[in-house]
Amino acid sequence: MRLTLALGVSIVIVGFVGVAPAAAQQEDLQTRIETAAAGSTIFVAGGIHEAITIDKPLQLIGEGQPIIDAEGEGSAITVAAPDVTIEGFLIRNTGVSLDRENAGIDANDSARLVIRNNTFENVLFGVFLRKSPQSQVVGNRVGAMDLELGRRGDGIRLWECSNSVIENNIVTGGRDTVYWFSDNLVVRGNEVTDGRYGLHFMYSDETVIEENRLAQNSVGVFFMYGRNLTLTNNVMAENQGPSGYGIGLKDMDGITATGNRMVGNRAGMYLDNSPWSVDQYQTIEGNLFAYNEVGVLFMPSVKRNTFTNNAFVDNAEQVGVKGGGNFSGNDWTLGGVGNYWSDFAGFDADGDGIGDVPYRLADLYSTLTDRHPELTFFSETPAARAVSIVARVFPVLEPRPKVEDLAPLINQPSLPVSTAESRTTSGALTMASLLMLAIAGSMAALGGTRTRRHGRRIATT
C-alpha cells in the first residue's frame, strides 16, 4: 500500500513536470499580475511565458531575461494602465496583422510607462504607445520580422505621447520609428539601421534630437508639420533610398541644426517649404555635408534659411535645386562667416581664414540636372565637363548662381565630438569617409595648411 502510494505520488509529480512550460508558467505569471496589489513589484526569474496583460500600476522586472512569447498571435504584452514598468525581458513572436497592429508591447492610456532594457525579436511592431505621455523607452534592442519592408511594422511608434524620452535604443530592420502628435520629446542616443525612415516626426513640436545614428535606411530623419526642433550631433549616413535624405524638412518652422554629420546620402539635407511661416527664419550652423550626391537639396520656392560655418566636402553636387523656378532668398554668410567648400578655388592673401573672393556656385551642368534628373547619368563624364566649360567660356550661357557665399572659409571647421559617430558601423562608406576626413586633418597638423596649385587649401577637420 505504501509502495503504491509512493508510486502514485511519483506519478503526480512527473505528470506536473511534464506540463508544457509555457502554459504552466504563463498561468502563474498572469495570476501573479492579477492578484498583485496596485503599485507593487513583481520579479520574474527566467522561464518562458505566454502573452500577458497589465491593467494596473506595477513594476514587472525580469531576472535572467525571462521570455514573453506571443506564439505568433496578437501582441506579447498589452498595457492598459498608467505607472507601469517593464524591464529585462526577451519579447518575441507577435502576430503579423498590420491592421490590428500586433506589437511586442502595445500600450494605450498608459501615462508614465517605462520600457527599459528589453530585447524584441521577431516582432511586427516593437513598441507601440498611444496616449501615453511622460513615458520612457530606454536601452531596448528591437529586431523586426523577416518581411518585405512595406509589410513590417514600426520599431517604435508614439501617438500622443508628449513629454516622453526615447533614449539609447537599437532598432534594426523595422519600417520606421515614428512620432505623431507628440510634443516636447527627447530622442537621444538611438541607433536605427536597415529601415525606411530612421526617425519620422509628424505634427510634433519642441523636440530635441541628439546623438542619434541613422544609417543605411531609405531616409535618415524626416520632419513634417512641426515647430521648434533641435538637431544636435547626429550622424545620418548612407541613407540611399529613392529619396535618400539624411535630414528631410517639409513645412517646418524654427529648425536649429548644429554639429550633425550627413555623409554618403543621396541628399544630405532636403528642404521643402521650410520655414513655412513668412515671419520665420532658420539657421543651419556647424554641420558636415560630405560625400553625398547632393549636399543640400532645395525646392525652388524655399527661402529664409541661413547657412554658416558648415563644411561641404566633396559632394557630387554641393547644392541642388529640385525642378525649375527662381531660387533665391537664402543666405550663406552670417556675421562675416560663411562656409567651407572643398571646391573653392579662391585665395586668402591676408591670412584671416576667409576667402578674398566669394564662392559662387553657378554650374550649367548641375543646373541642367536639377531640372532633368535623368542627366545625372552623365555626371563626371567628358560631356558633362564640356558643358560646364562652355558656360564659363561664353558667360551668356552661365546660369544665375545658386549659392553666393561672400565669406567662404579656407579651413574646414571642427565639429563637436559626437558619440553617435564613434559607434561601430557596418557601412564601409561611412568608415571610409570619416577616415578620409581624419587623414586630411592629420596632414594639416603635420605639415601646416598648404596651398594647392589651383589656390585651394587642404581641408582640415
Structural overview:
It is a single chain. The protein has a single domain, classed as Pectate Lyase C-like. 44% of the residues are buried. The protein is of the alpha/beta class. Helices cover 16% and strands 33% of the residues.
Summarize the structure.
This protein is of the alpha/beta class and 461 residues long. Helix content is 16%, strand content 33%.
Kindly report the average pLDDT value.
84
Q: For the CA atoms, what is the radius of gyration? A: 27 Å
**Strand order within the widest beta sheet:** 2-5-8-11-14-17-20-23-26-29-32-35-37
CATH class label? Mainly Beta
Taking pLDDT < 50 over at least 5 consecutive residues as the criterion, the unreliable ranges are: 1-26, 387-391, 424-432, 438-461
**Proportion of residues in helical segments:** 10-25%
SS summary, helix count: 6
Number of strands: 39
- What CATH architecture do you see? 3 Solenoid
- Briefly note the CATH topology name: Pectate Lyase C-like
Which term fits the overall shape? elongated
Could you name the key traits of this structure?
461 residues, Pectate Lyase C-like, 13-stranded parallel β-sheet, 12-stranded parallel β-sheet, 6 helices, 39 strands, 16% helix, disordered C terminus
